[in-house]
Amino acid sequence: SLISTVILVGFMNPILILMGAGETLEIAGQYSIIIFSFIIVFVYIAATSAIFRAEGDMKRGTIPIVIAAVLNIVLDPIFIYVFNWGVAGAAWATVLAAALSAIVMTYWMFVKKDMFLDLSFKNFNYQSSIVLDTLYVAVPSSLESIMFSAFGVVVNNMLAIIGGASAVAVYTAAFRMSQVSQIPLSGISTALLTVAGVSYGASNPKNLNIAYSYSIKFGLAISTVIVVFMVIFSHQLASVFAYTAASASLLPNIATAISVLALYLFAIPLGLMSSMVFQGAGKGVYSLLIAFARFLLFGSMFSYLFGFVFGWGITGVYAGAIFGCFVGGVCGFIMAKSFIHKFKKATNINPQGS
What is the pLDDT of residues 123-148, one digit of tens each? Predict the structure, then answer.
């Protein structure tokens, strides 16, 4: 966290320019300097939440984060409009809400101490093998997030070239709505990650295959419902981001972007669930390869191809990103099914399981 803070704060302006901030660089900096300075808070709640989930305590791993989200929503208008802090107010609301979540989790872990895991220092026993095993999964997983962010930078720059800062603003608003709609898929993938780890550790390819197949089918079913909803109510959803005179003119473009980017949900289940299979099995490198194929290879390539070579403009960039991620997901699906098949042969378990 400390290293990331130093790097991001030190190179903040170049990073924001690379992401397509353009004429919004100053206000983007007002928000970013606060968020970057408190990265440790966000990393801390992610780690502590993972500890609770690992114990099977999904409620305490989730409740503080939900409370923080609600508090953020409440504090945003107060800090932005009542205190007149503007964009910086939004950043402070996010940091304070996250800090509250961190305090609640810290109380449960170190004061109440009603967990299976005793985090007292007297129980600490350093083992290099455990650290290496953890890093073998964590480093590729972190690089996946970096690749996703890099893909966002690539798309932002393509849109900035074609349509300027307004195109970037439209994409950011629409993609934010798309990210919210991905929450159910993230929940399914988290569950699959746990089941995949248990199944692989128990040498049970049958359970692994069932969980993997079911998560994809369930994910696609949920995606279909959400996509239909987003397309039908695209204008109503867009109004969330176009409630001021300055942004009202972007409403039609945001609505169109939401309708198009909603299709991105169909490209998620194959790639995401395949990555979870490999992460659960402790094979983070393969998960990293899937992320590379989805985002940097096919996603970027088809965005450029459709947007610039075919001359489809902004819509082409959207379509290319979606199609590229889907192609990468298909590659991940083939890799995961092949892995499960080899796993089944290696454990000498027949197709009916044991």
Answer: 888 999 989 888 887 888 888 888 88
Sign of CA dihedral 230, 233, 235, 238: negative
The answer to whether 325 and 299 have CB atoms below 8 angstroms apart is: yes
Contacts of 136 (CB under 8 A, 6+ apart): 282, 284
**Residue 54, both tokens:** 């690992």
**What letter does residue 295 receive in the DSSP assignment?**
I
d(CA 79, CA 96) in angstroms, rounded, equals: 11
Q: If DSSP codes are grouped into helix, strand and coil, which group holds residue 322?
A: helix
Q: What are the φ/ψ torsions at residue 59 (nearest 5 degrees)?
A: -65, -50
Is the CB of residue 324 less than 8 Å from the CB of residue 147?
no
- Residue 302's φ and ψ, nearest 5 degrees, are -75, -30
Is-contact 45 101, C-beta < 8 A? yes
Could you give the CA distance from residue 164 to residue 339 in angstroms, rounded to a whole number?
44
**Nearest in space to 208 (alpha carbons), one of 138, 140, 282, 131:** 282
* 42 contacts 98 by C-beta, under 8 angstroms: yes
**pLDDT tens per residue, range 173-202:** 888 888 888 889 988 998 898 899 989 999
Q: Are 329 and 270 in contact (CB under 8 A)?
A: yes
Rounded-to-integer distance, Cα 73 and Cα 85, Å: 15
C-alpha neighbours within 13 Å on the C-beta side of residue 270: 21
Cα 28 to Cα 279: distance, rounded to the nearest angstrom: 34
Predicted TM-score (pTM) above 0.85: no
Distance CA 311, CA 98 (A): 43
Whether 314 and 166 have beta carbons less than 8 Å apart is answered as no
280/48 Cα distance (integer angstroms)? 19
The two structure tokens encoding residue 303: 């965005």
For 45, the enclosing helix (H) or strand (E) is helix 39-54
**What span, in angstroms and rounded, lies between the C-alpha atoms of 270 and 282?**
19
Enumerate long-range contacts of 49-55, CB under 8 Å, 24 or more apart: 49/105, 51/109, 51/115, 51/117, 52/105, 52/108, 52/115, 53/190, 53/194, 55/115, 55/116, 55/117
Per DSSP, the three-state class of 233 is coil
What beta strand segments (E) does the chain contain?
A: none
